[in-house]
Amino acid sequence: MQRPAVHVGLHLVLIAPSATALRKMLAICDAYASSYCMNFNAEKSKCVVVLPSCRRSLASLSSECAFNMGGMHIETVSSYCHFGHIISSSLGDKQDILSRRYAFIGQVNGVLCYFRKLPSSVNARLFASYCTSFYACFMRFVLQCPR
User: Fold this and answer.
1) What pTM was computed for the model?
2) pLDDT, tens digit (0-9, with 9 covering 90-100), for 9-40
3) Which of 39, 42, 137 is nearest to 97 (CA)?
């Protein structure tokens, strides 16, 4: 009697030094999934190819690499948002910093908009509670950006 497949909402990150190594790891994942009646969702999976700066000229060739999981093709992208942080193929953090900055500005605008009639001391407490969950580690980027 065959057991039904289990669908698990698992966030898995595989890091490999080469395409061959990644294919081997994906084969291991497929074997594991089939032995435990699990499915990995290749449609939700993405592949970001990161090359050293001395080999960035080969980036166009990396898009021709095909990776499969469970018999389905995994899309290759230049950047991907994972747990709220943007991982890019250039290993730069500019996109991630901009994303965090815009999220922070949105939180501040939300507090100022919804609680505009409250005293400034209450707004300061709300700001500290709702807008500084990252302890203002990216506040310096907001303040340094030209307007």
Assistant:
1) 0.58
2) 566 777 787 788 888 988 998 888 888 887 77
3) 137
